Amino acid sequence: MGNLTFILLLGPIVEEKYGDARTLFMMLITALVTGILNLLFFHTGLMGASGIVFMLILLVSFTNTKSGEIPVTFILIALLFIGKALESLKTDQISQFAHIIGGLCGSVFGFINRREANSS
Q1: pLDDT score, position 81
Q2: How far apart are CA 29 and CA 23, in angstroms?
Q3: Which of 35, 48, 69, 105 is most open to solvent, judged by the fewest CB atoms within 10 Å of its CB?
């Protein structure tokens, strides 16, 4: 329920900034990359949308950026959320790995989309 709440809160912001098709593409790529890496490194399955939620959280921090600047909100969110996931790497029912990969995907997408917007 928590992941769905975050998706419903952050999804429209990301969709407005990047468009429906690009948002769907970023979600699918994040899920695919997270699934493949999980398959390569772990013997457990994944359930939920934690990776996508972390991707959205980091993408939202790029919504009001100016050219040539790294948003302070991005730095703070990355430190807080990815740092928390790294700190929590233990055997529990939450895939911290999915959080980290989703955050990395969101960071990459944010920088790529920002670069494309600045070159247009």
Answers
A1: 75
A2: 10
A3: 69
**3-state helix vs strand vs coil in the chain, percent to 5:** 75, 0, 25
Question: What tokens does 96 get?
Answer: 């911290």
Task: Tell me the C-alpha distance between 110 and 19, whole Å.
Answer: 13
Q: Give per-residue pLDDT as tens, 51-60.
A: 999 999 989 8
Q: Which helix (DSSP H) or strand (DSSP E) does residue 77 occupy?
A: helix 72-77
Helices 96-119 & 50-60 angle (0-180, nearest 10) = 40
> Residue 65: which domain range?
2-119
Tally of domains in the chain: 1
Residues of the chain with pLDDT under 50: none
Say if residues 79 and 61 touch (Cβ distance below 8 Å).
no
